[in-house]
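Lay summary. Proteins are chains of building blocks that fold into shapes, and those shapes determine what they do. In this project we predict the shape from the chain. Here is one chain we studied, written as its sequence of building blocks.
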Amino acid sequence: MSAQLHVLILAGGSGERFWPYSRRARPKQLLKLFSERTMLEETIERLGKDVPPDRIFVLTNREQETAVRAACSGLPAENIVAEPAKRDTAPAVALGVGLILRRDPQAVMAVLPADHLIEDDAAFRRDLLAGAQAAADSGALLTIGIKPTWACPGFGYIEQGKLVAENPAIYEVKRFREKPNPEMAESFLKQGNFRWNAGMFIWSIPAIMGELTKHAPELAAFVARMRTTKDLAALLESDFPKLPKISVDYAIMEKAARVLELEATFDWDDVGSWLAVAKYLDDTDGNAANCPVVAQDASHNIVFSSGRRHVALAGVQDLIVIDTGDALLVCHRREAENIKKLVPRVPEELQ
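And here is the predicted shape, written in a compact code that computers can read:
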């Protein structure tokens, strides 16, 4: 591949589902859930030597900028950009396109979330490079699909068309499907040609600019202004907040002339709640925990302590217990998705 691969990592988020460990200024990608590194640091490390630091860009927001810069100390400072206003993924992607276009108008660009768990780094890199080559060769937009392990109604889906390449498998995309109801998710699983949409994209800069010009001219015009401005910071401050709030799926992927899907050969988990984290914690007498636990007639609980303090459980089942020193959460497992509703009700300094 003659074009150089650049990577845009999206590192925003509100930090509500993992409260009290997460906060507004410390969302999921800034948490050390699975190692002594944050998930953002893990995402950068996963790229290995295939993408040097000067070709890695990180987008965040003003509230999280300080913590993100600390986690990305190995990257050039100018490669970390805080959006001046909260928009959606299409404006964020356009901003990333503009940053890369200023450096290399012929580059290949990958867009990656900062907060997904992938343990097989070598397989991820192989797929990333294969996808970059396919995007460069085809001029198509490429998305990475995950083979479903269960009928999850919480993910968007990709409907596969014909196979166009093997090893790794690359398919034409027939269409994107929104988050289905449980019955439809079951039907997707049974049909066998649906994959989870992991929100990972790869394309050449000329290809994405062509699609932006055709389907999102306001975003394309913003990128064009980024390319020529002498004061990028002032342009972002004045223009970015005016961009439409729209996802990259709606704005581009569902309308693009040709979209390919690379079927991932690596493991993947978006770890969207404490229930998902529990699968990766130690088992202590039937309880998932990251700290020492003494359990008496207590099982199926999730315990996480940022200070690794000892926790004793007696006669309780199906609880989530999260201790951060300044806050303690105790809730039933079935309320995991509703934790975010609590956050606005706790004191401001704990949000």
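What the prediction tells us: The radius of gyration is 21 Å.
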